[in-house]
Design goal:
The chain is an alpha+beta fold. It has a single domain, classed as 2-Layer Sandwich (Ybab, Chain: A). 55% of the residues lie in helices and 16% in strands. The protein contains four helices and three strands. The protein has a three-stranded antiparallel beta sheet with strand order 1-2-3. The chain is elongated and about 65 Å long. The two termini are 35 Å apart. The relative contact order is 0.16.
């Protein structure tokens, strides 16, 4: 790989990384449970934005299981955010993603 190409890819990677915080903040993801009767919405970092409960759920749900539904739904939304975050390095040139995945010198040695 030529030095010019490495520099060009590094510039592209830097530009992509600069966009990550905005993309993370702007991302809207969700998880649901109970046939979408409970839906949790999170941003790209997994911060909970809101929870929606359908009218049907509110009329017919067993209130003893409400906490369980909420926890499952929020966890699913959090997993969607984790998948989103994990996909971001895929936008970088492969050699940069591979280098970032390697431990830093001295890391993990003892």
């Amino acid at each position: 790989m030529s030095v010019d190409r490495v520099l060009a890819e590094a510039d592209q990677a830097y530009a992509a990384i600069q966009r990550f915080p905005g993309r993370i903040a702007a991302a809207r993801l969700s998880g649901s449970a109970g046939n979408d009767s409970v839906v949790a919405h999170v941003d790209g970092a997994g911060r909970l934005l809101r929870v929606e409960l359908s009218e049907t759920f509110l009329r017919h749900a067993d209130e003893r299981r409400l906490g369980e539904y909420l926890l499952v739904t929020i966890e699913r939304a959090g997993l969607a955010a984790e998948e989103f975050l994990a996909s971001l390095p895929g936008e970088l040139p492969a050699w940069i993603s591979e280098a970032a995945a390697r431990p830093a010198p001295g890391e993990g040695e003892r």
